[in-house]
């Protein structure tokens, strides 16, 4: 038996949250990948059911504040099904330049198929990659977006650091993520609803209650608005702000690389 007080003993593996469980950090990415492989075919339908379609308004707001212009290069991380990328594409007009990066090939396959169905054949690049170790050179993009993906990474600070690294000076970072509801009574109602509704819809529609139970739990363990803003500043972002939407059910965080 290993004596934990022995300085020569091997260190315990670093832990990471996976829903309400703590798992070895090295295993989290694989566990998250399994979740999204399971839900990929019905992911967008589930988003509509769970949010009553409001997620579409949240994403529209994200792209409104991003204000994409022709000639700019954008990176959408954890956006495999293309929901945000397609909005940027339409706003950029004749010269879209968007890279979608997702760790899960199954999600990217859904996005590529949707792009073909929409006739979006040029200006979109689909790349398998990890938010904590992006496969792009320094200072490559004018804008970085991540919608409902940051809570699924193993190390949030690494992902924020990578976002800062790949942005050009003056580049914009936008993170849309579930957050802390600003009203305690409404927060209790919302938490009770989501803890029951997500697994229920997951079982009925996606035939996978466990994956949606994880998604609910990951929302509850994500850092609240003020803490995430602090961590963004620690990774070098300036002019860090956030905007609560739907009473803080989600928050849109923004920062600039200077």
Automatic annotation (TrEMBL):
Pfam family of the protein (one): Ubie_methyltran
Enzyme class at the top of the EC tree: transferase
Keyword DNA-binding: no
Gene3D superfamilies linked to this entry: Vaccinia Virus protein VP39
Name of the protein described by the UniProt record: Ubiquinone/menaquinone biosynthesis C-methyltransferase UbiE
EC number: 2.1.1.163, 2.1.1.201
GO biological process, one term: aerobic respiration
Involved pathway(s): Quinol/quinone metabolism; menaquinone biosynthesis; menaquinol from 1,4-dihydroxy-2-naphthoate: step 2/2; Cofactor biosynthesis; ubiquinone biosynthesis
Record key words, sorted: Menaquinone biosynthesis, Methyltransferase, S-adenosyl-L-methionine, Transferase, Ubiquinone, Ubiquinone biosynthesis
Biological function: Methyltransferase required for the conversion of demethylmenaquinol (DMKH2) to menaquinol (MKH2) and the conversion of 2-polyprenyl-6-methoxy-1,4-benzoquinol (DDMQH2) to 2-polyprenyl-3-methyl-6-methoxy-1,4-benzoquinol (DMQH2).
Chain residues that bind S-adenosyl-L-methionine: 81, 102, 130-131
Listed GO MF terms: 2-methoxy-6-polyprenyl-1,4-benzoquinol methyltransferase activity; demethylmenaquinone methyltransferase activity
SUPFAM superfamilies hit by this protein: S-adenosyl-L-methionine-dependent methyltransferases (SSF53335)
Catalytic activity: a 2-methoxy-6-(all-trans-polyprenyl)benzene-1,4-diol + S-adenosyl-L-methionine = a 5-methoxy-2-methyl-3-(all-trans-polyprenyl)benzene-1,4-diol + S-adenosyl-L-homocysteine + H(+); a 2-demethylmenaquinol + S-adenosyl-L-methionine = a menaquinol + S-adenosyl-L-homocysteine + H(+)
Keyword Secreted: no
InterPro entries (alphabetical): SAM-dependent_MTases_sf, UbiE/COQ5_MeTrFase, UbiE/COQ5_MeTrFase_CS
Family: Belongs to the class I-like SAM-binding methyltransferase superfamily. MenG/UbiE family.
